[in-house]
Amino acid sequence: MTDTAAAQKTADVVDEVRAWLEENWDPDLTVGEWWERLGLSGWAAPNLPEHAYGKGLNRNDSVAVQKAIADFGALGAPGGLGLLLAAPTIATHGTQEQIDTMVRDIVTGKRAWCQLFSEPGAGSDLAGLQCRAIKDGDEWIVTGQKVWTSGGHVADMGMLIARTDPDVPKHQGITYFGIDMHQPGKIEVRPLVEMTGHAMFNEVFLEEAVVPDANIIGGLNNGWAVANTTLMNERAGLGAGGGGAAASAATPGTIAGDLDKRAGDFVSDRPRRRSGGGGAAAGLGGAYKLILELAKQNGKIEDKTIRQDLMRLHTLNELGRFHNWRAKAGKAIGHDVPGLPNISKLQMSEIVRQQRDLGLRILGPYGTLHAYKPEQATELDRATGNPMLGLVTGMALFAQGPPIYGGTDQIQKNIIGERVLGLPKEPSNDKTLPFKELPKNA
């Protein structure tokens, strides 16, 4: 497809969603009612295939749909890891029955999801996980600990990978489940407070938690392949130019309590101070505009080195956009660009580091001030007269996270080296020894 034809296709998609919004958007609907209407129409997750409540659109057109909904003034699709990770994974590996229940509840916002992957001794070496699931009739009994669980405190469901066969090599004995998080006494979620003062992540303890056999996604002991689909979607969504991690103003699921509220109350033209850590959560392009505006306001824009670094940051963001176009062009001819999600994830890490260093240089001594609690933010704004200060320091403190979560920078480089460039792997018995015979972390 030529660039002109692709641009016309995107324009046609935008016209279609606008026409649909004209007929269907009603700010007096509850959030749950609106998301039901949006999700079942296919516009909540247009990147999903049509049999999974989507429209089969490429990422570029899906981002255009998101923007069209926002520009129209309607409430966007339910955000979070359900739409970003669980839905595309289940659409790829799940049965139609699982799609008709799990994915339907995701696109309509009825259930929020979290990701139960990393463990205290299995982060970068994710396949070394020790959380175990033991078969008991038509159910599995799960015991173990997970960590760095985003949104675990508001999740109804979890993407769980657990060891179901310790007698085979570690990558072969893992199974992927959709687990109900509402199991008091069996699943405990504890927040992990970050240096930003917020608690975006959690640790989760599972003690004989129960998951039905019917909730296995992708087949018994095939969890590593299924998990890699989740991870590739995560890296693509988090990476520079990804455009897939945007969060809605309202929170999906039964715990947050937004489903019964008026949808129109979540739509505003006014910028909101986010409660998350900043950085990638604030949007890479939006963060650049914030830093640029700050430099103009305090006169640092006249500093030649500041202008040079602003241009470097702008270039990195543009390259992220070009990576997105490259992926789109590859999809159009049925070809995935090897390693591109990993490259985009690495680029995102570099962007947040650049944002951190440049933002603090522009702030100067004020960069040592940060509000760790909401009530402190109001006082800091009053004392400094600069409401952008907290956003920049929040991004700076959060910048240490993205190079770690979603797969560390070192892991991304290993994947590129081994799977794309064909470099030899480090010597290991992982592929041959049963998991139970491998040395374990203390």
Summarize the structure in words.
The structure is a single chain. This protein is an alpha+beta fold and 442 residues long. Among the domains are: 3-110 and 234-238, Acyl-CoA dehydrogenase/oxidase, N-terminal domain (Butyryl-Coa Dehydrogenase, subunit A, domain 1), CATH 1.10.540; 271-407, Up-down Bundle (Butyryl-CoA Dehydrogenase, subunit A, domain 3), CATH 1.20.140.10. Helix content is 43%, strand content 11%. The chain has helices spanning 3-24, 31-41, 59-72, 81-93, 96-107, 223-238, 284-297, 304-332, 340-363, 374-384, 389-398, 409-420; strands at residues 113-116, 132-136, 139-146, 157-163, 174-180, 187-192, 201-212. A four-stranded antiparallel beta sheet has the order 2-3-7-6, with no helix packed on it. The relative contact order is 0.11.
Order of helices and strands: HHHHHEEEEEEEHHHHHHH
**Overall 3D shape:** globular
**Gyration radius from CA atoms, angstroms:** 22 Å
The name of the CATH topology of the domain at 271-407 is Butyryl-CoA Dehydrogenase, subunit A, domain 3
Roughly how much helix do the residues carry, as a percent range?
A: 40-55%
What do we call the CATH homologous superfamily of the domain at 271-407? Butyryl-CoA Dehydrogenase, subunit A, domain 3
**End-to-end separation:** 54 Å
* Strand adjacency order, main sheet: 2-3-7-6
CATH class of the domain at 271-407: Mainly Alpha
What fraction strand? 5-15%
CATH architecture of the domain at 271-407: Up-down Bundle
- Unreliable runs, pLDDT <50, ≥5 residues? 270-282
Structural class: alpha+beta
The biggest sheet, with number of strands, parallel, antiparallel or mixed sense and barrel status, is:
4 strands, antiparallel
Mean model confidence by pLDDT: 90
Please provide the count of β strands.
7
Helix run count: 12
